[in-house]
Amino acid sequence: MALSWSLEMAPFMATSMLPLLALPVLGIMTADDMANQYFSKPVLEKFLYFSFALVLREATLVYTRAAFFMLRRFGTRVRSLLISFLILTLVLVQVADAGLVALVLVFTAVVVISEIQNDIIREEQFKVSARVLVSKQTSGCL
Q: Where would you find the membrane-spanning parts of this chain (predicted)?
């Protein structure tokens, strides 16, 4: 399976479901044992957490709101961001399971990183346009 994933000979979803067909056909495991492995409680919990996190991401702007609040309240310094993530983790763990909290933190971190990158790009664009304006002003083009 690792070879087919790395070479992308088949879609990822198709190759991940391949053991459901191959192991019972080859007589390595029965279909019941295979179903118990694939649909065990931890696997279903992770699937439900991820589904819930995606619904939160699409239906509400919880991650974006949390990220903007963290940036506005704590700033963009590394130490401040770590403290804000620790506080967010502390609050979320009180009301949700650890698996869901981990997914929420990942999506929030993605929003924080993209917003910091966008801010850096805007700042660089502002500096470039200011340099162009100053150079035109000093050369007498305006």
A: 47-68, 80-113
Q: Which two tokens stand for residue 56?
A: 């939160």
Q: Indicate if 122 and 71 belong to the same structural domain.
A: yes
119 shares a domain with 54: yes
What is the rounded CA–CA span in Å between residue 84 and residue 114? Answer: 17
The pLDDT tens digits for 98-140 are 888 888 888 888 888 888 888 877 777 777 777 877 777 777 6
Domain that holds residue 122: 47-139
Q: Are residues 110 and 92 in the same domain?
A: yes
| Per-residue model confidence as pLDDT tens digits over 84-104 | 899 989 998 998 888 888 888
Label each residue of the chain as H, E or C: CHHHHHHCCCCHHHHHCHHHHHHHHHCCCCHHHHHHHHCCHHHHHHHHHHHHHHHHHHHCCHHHHHHHHHHHHHCCCHHHHHHHHHHHHHHHHHHCCHHHHHHHHHHHHHHHHHHHHHHHHHHHHHHHHHHHHHHHHHHCCC
